[in-house]
């Protein structure tokens, strides 16, 4: 499942939530905290796919400028976010988490803004879900995905996305 940033769909209720000013988003401000929150056990079960070694590898990718996080704060407290890996004009979304309603959606909305600013053309959502489809993501064939990767993804680190001001969303 992929999301083309230009096809991102924000529902009326999410637009209202984002306009409320309740959420503040930052970029590459708390990568380690976000990945560890994504690795924490969920209500659905105690297991996580993120091992200690994987977390270390993603943190190294972050240090090298390939991996990025978007954090959502509510009342100054980290309440949600997402992280992934960028190769040229493709962002591979790895995981997202939320402790507050719509906090991960606010992070995704900020990711779309960052993708637009950086000419990122494709977000790999990896796993299909009705929720992602409601936001504009769609399934494509493996051959189409491979063609898009050949077109848009190179092994060029983007560098840090930090330094961007926090933005209310």
CATH homologous superfamily name? Leucyl/phenylalanyl-tRNA-protein transferase, C-terminal domain
**CATH class placement:** Alpha Beta
Low-pLDDT stretches are none
Q: What's the number of helices?
A: 6
Structural class, judged by helices and strands?
alpha+beta
Main sheet characteristics: 7 strands, mixed
Work out the helicity level. Answer: 25-40%
**Helix/strand order, N-terminal first:** EHEHHEEEHEHHE
Structural domain tally: 1
| CATH topology (level 3) name | Aminopeptidase
List keywords for this structure.
169 residues, alpha+beta, Aminopeptidase, seven-stranded mixed sheet
List the helices and strands and how they pair.
Elements: E1 2-3, H1 12-19, E2 23-27, H2 31-39, H3 52-63, E3 67-74, E4 77-87, E5 90-98, H4 103-117, E6 122-124, H5 130-134, H6 142-152, E7 167-168
Parallel strand pairs: 5-6
Antiparallel strand pairs: 1-6, 2-3, 2-7, 3-4, 4-5
Helix pairs in contact: 2-3
Description:
The chain has one domain (2-168): Aminopeptidase (3-Layer(aba) Sandwich), CATH 3.40.630.70. It has a seven-stranded mixed sheet, with helices on both faces. With 169 residues, it is α+β, with helices and mostly antiparallel strands. Helix content is 36%, strand content 24%. A hairpin with a 2-residue loop joins β3 and β4 (77-87). It has helices spanning 12-19, 31-39, 52-63, 103-117, 130-134, 142-152, and strands at 2-3, 23-27, 67-74, 77-87, 90-98, 122-124, 167-168. The protein contains six helices and seven strands. The relative contact order is 0.24. The two termini are 25 Å apart.
